[in-house]
């Protein structure tokens, strides 16, 4: 009678795998194998020799967990059983941040399920990052810079690949931002309470407008976004008179420091 000595998933090199993987059954007296018993499913073997049988894990396999494997010969004799573990497909549920700078990328924590056998996180067309998760529900990685980005914002899907497959693309997204740029401020001088117009590019989801005075002190201004190229800011109180600068900040980083004089 056939005896099974080991099970090896050819993708993982272990007795763990996912539907679609090829599994090698190693043993003795296997040459008359007619079917592989994968739990309650009967699977037709792909190859059969005296010492090895191969088969493909069926798509009807359980989502995860232990399955008993045996073989049955053409005469109806069934071998011993060995355990095989079906690895669950990972899922992603969210990120610790919603956006990063296109110029630098940044640290991101990905949340989801079934991460422990993860090997890489994919960030859309930007690239893949090798990971070694230590928790089943999260992994931290450094999102790579998106150096070829043209538009102000580029939305990229984030996925994770494990021994159980790759998570669904499009369920978790991250935005890459180019840094804003100021081209002019009108007027170029002002005092506490004055409204000025700031012209430039990349003014998408601006979070702060900062005035720096002649003594290098800073103050955050109240501002109103008008468009991606225009916003109106109020000169904050408490700044020293003289030559200073204005910067605009988004998820893409700080803009250039544009000259502005406090009067």
Quaternary organisation of the protein chains: single chain
Regions with little confidence, pLDDT below 50 for 5+ residues: none
Helix and strand element order: EEEEEEEEEEEEEEEEEEEEEEEEEEEE
- Strand fraction equals over 45%
Largest sheet data: 6 strands, mixed
Q: Compute the gyration radius: what is it?
A: 30 Å
Number of strands: 28
Outline: rod-shaped
- Backbone structural class: mainly beta
- Report the mean per-residue pLDDT as an integer: 96
Residue share in helices?
under 10%
What is the CA-CA span between the terminal residues?
Answer: 97 Å
How many individual helices? 0
Task: Give me a quick take on this structure.
The protein is mainly β.
Descriptive account of the structure:
This protein has 263 residues and is an all-beta fold. Helices cover 0% and strands 54% of the residues. It has no helices and 28 strands. Strands 11, 13, 14, 16, 17 and 18 form a 6-stranded mixed sheet that branches. It is rod-shaped, with a radius of gyration of 30 Å. The N and C termini lie far apart (97 Å). The model has no long low-confidence stretch (mean pLDDT 96).
List keywords for this structure.
263 residues; mainly beta; six-stranded mixed β-sheet; 28 strands; 54% strand; rod-shaped
Fold blueprint:
Elements: E1 3-9, E2 16-17, E3 22-28, E4 33-38, E5 41-43, E6 47-48, E7 52-56, E8 65-73, E9 82-86, E10 91-95, E11 99-101, E12 106-113, E13 120-123, E14 127-130, E15 138-143, E16 153-162, E17 165-166, E18 173-177, E19 181-186, E20 189-190, E21 195-201, E22 208-212, E23 218-220, E24 223-227, E25 230-234, E26 242-250, E27 253-254, E28 258-262
Parallel strand pairs: 2-9, 11-18, 20-28
Antiparallel strand pairs: 1-3, 3-7, 4-5, 4-8, 6-7, 8-9, 10-12, 12-15, 13-14, 13-16, 16-17, 16-18, 19-21, 21-25, 22-23, 22-26, 24-25, 26-27, 26-28
